[in-house]
Amino acid sequence: MIKTFKHILAFVAAIGIAATASAQSHSYSLGKWAEIQNAIIKELNRSYVDSLEIGRIERAGIDAMLEALDPYTVYVPEEEQEDFQMMISGSYGGVGAVIYKPDVQGNVIINEPYAGSPAVKAGLQCGDEVVSIDGESTHGLTSSQASEKMRGKPGSTVLLKVKKLRAGEYWKAGEVIAVPVIRERIVLPAISYSGMLDGETGYILVDKFTEGVAQNMRDCAKALKKQGMKRLVIDLRGNGGGLLSEAVNMVGLFVPRGSVVVTSKGRSNLSNSTYKTSTEPFDVNLPLIVMVDSGTASASEIVSGALQDYDRATVVGTRTYGKGLVQSIRSLPYDGQLKVTTAKYYTPSGRCVQAIDYSHRNEDGSVGHIPDSLTHTFTTAHGRTVRDGGGITPDYTVEARNYSRITYSLVLNGIVEQYTLDYVRRHESIPALADFHFTDFEDFVAFAAGKEFDYRTSSRTAVDELREALAEEGLSEATEAQLKALEEALNIPKEEYIRLKKDEIIPFIEEEIAVRYYYQEAGVAVRLRYDTQLQKALTLPPISW
User: Fold this and answer.
1) Segments making up each domain of the chain, as ranges
2) Active site residues
3) What pLDDT, in 10s, does the model give residues 87-113?
């Protein structure tokens, strides 16, 4: 017995010695590499052939080091704090307008003033050109530089010289006038649209999880219920997440108080937490549809995953992004901050939605195919099977509408946006939103035909890629005749191809025009007219009721 006890003591002592040695080895490695890095910087500063930008190379080194860990652990220096806080709070000090800069040497164009913003109060309209900001010409400024100069402390004044699009009471069209704008705290709405889709279906579009979004959701849901809402669509498509606490509070609107929403687990005990709902719910029986896609991430996945686990909602769309990591903010010297991944989060059923391999994704950022053999099964409150391994898999997979290559090209190359600004210059007003439909498509065709952009069909692009591959293999001469015949068959004139895709393109034009006259909420209302994915979701039988 005594011998056995001595063996146990010896074993425990060995563990302690090993642990101490491991900790010492770890500390030694950290100290070693810190010393080496410091020595390299000193030697470069002393010996490098050109002048050394210490700040730039140190930042590059920090970013590369953190990038080797995961995509979400990042360093935020003091000068980037305002942008970082804007991501968290959804607010900033400024004039409240999206600007457009067609080229560096041109003027800044007011593209989308926000409803009720200082820009609107000062009389700025879409199409007005900003010639100077506080006396500095906008020529030579990039769009981001101009935007930065318009931002500032709420209550301060920025003086803009503006070439007016239209005549007003005290100026002529094209006249340059001085416009003082008093900056305000601009709060970007986390919920950009709330309304009734039909006599009984409410709809709320949640763009981000910033401070107060759960209370905003409660207020919107109350208003919709007064309008006769009997079921609610929560649209989380494209919502990249935000504050975990707001996700918990949002789930709490629809499940009993005290329900577990998410559990976080990390290396430190401080990272291990269970988050429960703490407020009285809005309605625990209201039928819910949650719309998701590959852009639904982080806090959005907490909400959709928890409501799915409790069988409180029918989740419709495509598989979500797969970001199941929790970030915490740590203070650093010189007022910097480190946003560091400290834990993984798990839905009520025990699922971790983190993609098994977040470094390899599809082109659109979505999770690639994951074999069932690499995932685990879990059960919802009512016994349905759900899996982990990469995002939230919808109860019903419904693909979004596919668009042709030319439609993407017209949008991404700014042709639709440029046309919209031209349209605004020529039309002082449009009908009420409910009556507005864009009908002058030939006008757009003529405008777009005069612009340079890639209007090849997907099949023509494939032929061009095939030609390159044949050239690399030395087969160009042998296949030239066939390739030429195929190219000629696929050479559709620009105007003809645009007309062919009229039904695809019109919704984008209509939305952009509506935003310029009736602000951002109007754009969502137009988008809903053509949302085939949502329309399909409304016809599906509910999973949970």
Assistant:
1) 1-45, 91-187, 191-401, 405-535
2) 298, 309, 323
3) 666 778 999 999 988 776 788 999 999
